[in-house]
Amino acid sequence: MSKQSMTKKDEVFLSRRRFLKSAAALAAVPAINSILPKTALAKAVEEALPHFRYTKTAHKGILSAAHWGAFQGVVKDGKMIDAIAIDDDPAPNELIKMVPHQVHAKNRVKYPMVRRNYLEGGAGARKEKRGNDEWVRVSWDKATELVAGEITRLQENFGPSSIYAGSYGWKSTGMFHNSRTLLHRLMNLTGGFLGYAGDYSTGAAQMIMPHVMGSMEVYEQQTAWPVVVESSELVVLWGFNAMATLKNAWNVPDHEGQAGLKALKEKGTRVIAIDPIRNETIEYMNAEWIAPRPYTDVAMMLGMAHTLYSENLHDKEFLKYYTTGFDKFLAYLTGEVDGEPKTAEWAANVCGIDAETIKMLAREFAKNRTMLMAGWGMQRQHHGEQPNWMLVTLAAMLGQIGLPGGGFGFSYHYSSGGSPTAKGGILAGINAGKAPKDSPAPIPVARIVDAIMNPGKTIKFNGRKVTYPNIKMVYVAGGNPFHQHQDTNTLLKAWQQLDTIIVQEPYWTASAKHADIVLPATTAYERNDLDMGGDYSQRYVFPMHKIVEPQHEAKSDFDIYVSLAAKLGVKEAYTEGKDEMQWLKEMYDGMAKQARANRVPLPPFEMFWNANDYVVFPIPEANKRWIRHADFRDNPLLNPLGTPSGRIEIFSDTIAKMDYADCAPHPKWYEPREWYKADIAKKYPLSLNTAHPTQRLHSQLDNTPLRDKYAIANREAVMINNQDAKARGIKHGDLVRAFNDRGQILVGALVSADIRPGGVRICEGAWYDSDNPGQTGGMCRNGCVNVLTFDQGSSQLAQGNCGHMAQLEIEKYLGDAPVNLAHTSPKNA
Length: 829
Ligand SMILES: Nc1nc2c(c(=O)[nH]1)N[C@H]1C(S)=C(S)[C@@H](COP(=O)(O)OP(=O)(O)OC[C@H]3O[C@@H](n4cnc5c(=O)[nH]c(N)nc54)[C@H](O)[C@@H]3O)O[C@H]1N2
Ligand SMILES: Nc1nc2c(c(=O)[nH]1)N[C@H]1C(S)=C(S)[C@@H](COP(=O)(O)OP(=O)(O)OC[C@H]3O[C@@H](n4cnc5c(=O)[nH]c(N)nc54)[C@H](O)[C@@H]3O)O[C@H]1N2
Ligand SMILES: [Mo]
Known about the structure:
Elements: H1 24-27, H2 40-48, E1 52-53, E2 62-66, E3 69-76, E4 79-85, H3 99-103, E5 113-115, H4 116-121, E6 135-137, H5 140-158, E7 163-164, H6 179-189, E8 196-197, H7 205-213, H8 225-231, E9 234-238, H9 242-245, H10 256-267, E10 270-274, H11 280-285, E11 288-290, H12 297-310, H13 316-322, E12 323-324, H14 326-333, H15 344-351, H16 355-367, E13 370-374, H17 385-398, E14 407-409, E15 443-444, H18 448-453, E16 458-461, E17 464-467, E18 473-477, H19 481-484, H20 488-495, E19 500-505, H21 510-513, E20 517-520, E21 529-533, E22 540-544, H22 557-567, H23 571-575, H24 580-597, H25 605-611, E23 614-616, H26 621-624, H27 630-634, E24 648-649, H28 653-658, H29 680-683, E25 686-689, H30 707-710, E26 717-721, H31 722-727, E27 735-740, E28 743-752, E29 759-761, E30 779-780, E31 807-812
Parallel strand pairs: 7-18, 8-15, 9-10, 9-13, 10-11, 12-24, 13-14, 18-19, 19-20, 25-29, 26-28, 28-30
Antiparallel strand pairs: 1-23, 2-3, 3-4, 5-6, 5-20, 16-17, 21-22, 22-23, 25-31, 26-29, 27-28, 27-31
Bound molecules: ligand MGD (2 copies) and molybdenum atom.
One ligand MGD is lined by residues 201, 238-241, 244-245, 247-248, 274-277, 279, 292, 294-295, 297, 375-378, 413-414, 689, 691-694, 696-698, 804.
């Protein structure tokens, strides 16, 4: 295999306009509940077809899947009461157990609801009351009439750029009930919409890497785990917490990354971790922990690069044959251009790690077969382009890129990058259809609030210019802007500018509470779907059977859009005449055809669906030995990188031509907007870390009992070093106010030695709950960290978000503890 690549957020759009030959055959498909236990026929098929795996826990429940794993849902008296991970899962987790709680959560959106003033006064009426208005229950017919009417009004009067329907978010798994793509499909049939570019995850890295490596690197297959276990002598975990982040995946996780880490641990490979926090992966691997000042990694890497150069440890052959521009970078590294040599001593003064340690690290990296594995937290920062570029430069100087167990990897912590790729078939998801010709150009995803606030403003973006249109409506389905976006108070202001906000959701999240029209969506467990298991391994195909009937008046996203399509006169085009099961059969058949071409025969759809089983594709031996960039290393002329030079660009002419003051044409240390040496640190001395939550997926599952395990004083936890806590008279378990000039939140003190002094961690994803609803400046009673972050692009190149960075102060909260209403439904709802 010469190149393995995949994208995360954009499903593989295989356009198959083929219609079902026999829809009638499907009518015979019985409901899953009626076909358990397994039929004799299914058992016979399974014996004949080894990749059609009999669910070992069969008969316990109904097979389905989520971001946190595949499981069987157990139902009693129409209610889901348990979820049991499949036996093939090498690292089943506690999130799976929350599935029944998701279905039966108290704060489900039960009926379509409209904000009273909106219902009575129309679009834009009393918009300042959003978040603090009454809710009125309406019929589905009325709700869809309002939504369809507003789409029509805006398309006619202002055109597609007035409707932001990008709808970024992690929704649920399932290749068909993809709330976002299905929304795009509707909008494309009705005049187009304003969408987004990039994502919140790798906003900076995915834009800079193509200039440097010719590919995004962050969503690409990594050197296979068996190779790492066998060949790496030193593994460096740089801002990397895979034991937490691998619990979830974009599709259904295969959890093979945890198996890889376990094997590494059992072998006793040396592991060094660089992170301001001694996170659970460091703990699990018992790694050597180096804790730099937050946001200073680029300086630290420069100090190492300088050591390699000055001690003649860099690989000159590799730099010569496989890279371009090292000489120009060198002039910066040695201080020739700015009078500032980036020595280990210089770096020590910036990152707070002593020069001897920095030098030791550089020498160890050079001496051993070293794999640099990096997470994405440090690129979700101001100048977040630089850590990735500099890490690649460091790896290039070490000269091990393309060798077994050497080089760098930017996706070992995500969706099990490095889990060897199987050979079978791939499910194509539902497609968004064709965008109309005059569709507006997308805006960088994290600039949405800036765009709403500043229509007509032009910004720079990766060599292009983007002019913000006049956005009048936001349609959210499968995302949670009140958690995902930085600087919540500014978001609130922006939300108050809009004519209409529609939120399609299973729960009364803060985003729902601040909308005009709320449409109740089912969870994934109330509908039928299919998904792949293993984003990189593509190893499994899971049926996602409906486990319980839709709760209350909730409808699947597909059914909601079909009703809207009917009102907008595009129903036939939208459904192509197919219902849920017909779409699933078509997706399965397309996948099975590819599998057959790969000599992996699969049973017909009906049999697959009825058997409560899943498919496990074989993994070719060669893929277990796969090494990222080995082909490039073997022959850079025949297998050039996708960069202009075909080589690793340590200096980029493309970026030089952009001429951005905040993104030089070579990796460079920039002082960030907020950090411990900035003026702001005198007032707000603590540096914020907003790591992803171990026992949640962002905001998802915050309304389940798992919260009892991590909430402190009934709020999101703030991790703080013992010394910093002591200096402020804060004890473990105390209620604490965290604040800066942008806002204030209540959190519970988690006092610990596992965080470097000067840093605090408040995980992203707590549901926003203001004590002054709808107004800016209120205190969030649940600890939504984005109240404290700033909303600025990483640089003009990537315009990525800076969610992982902010200065703040904390103090013991002395008032009466206010009631936390984050997980309650509004009155009458
Ligand atoms: N400060 C800071 N901010 C961050 C980050 C950070 O590190 N720091 N991380 C960023 C990153 S990487 C990301 S990816 C974003 C994530 O941000 P989001 O993707 O917005 O986070 P989720 O909590 O997954 O939101 C998904 C929402 O979809 C709803 N949902 C689930 N299933 C369905 C469905 O089938 N249909 C519909 N209609 N709705 C459904 C859920 O209830 C939930 O409200 O956050 C970003 N924000
Ligand atoms: N359990 C769980 N798993 C998830 C998610 C989730 O919400 N929960 N979200 C999924 C998604 S959408 C994404 S994008 C990925 C996110 O994956 P990542 O972005 O890699 O995860 P983070 O937790 O934000 O950051 C990883 C590590 O970086 C460290 N870090 C932060 N700032 C710095 C710094 O300045 N320097 C250094 N050296 N280290 C730093 C943090 O302390 C943390 O240990 O995870 C995915 N998996
Ligand atoms: Mo993400």
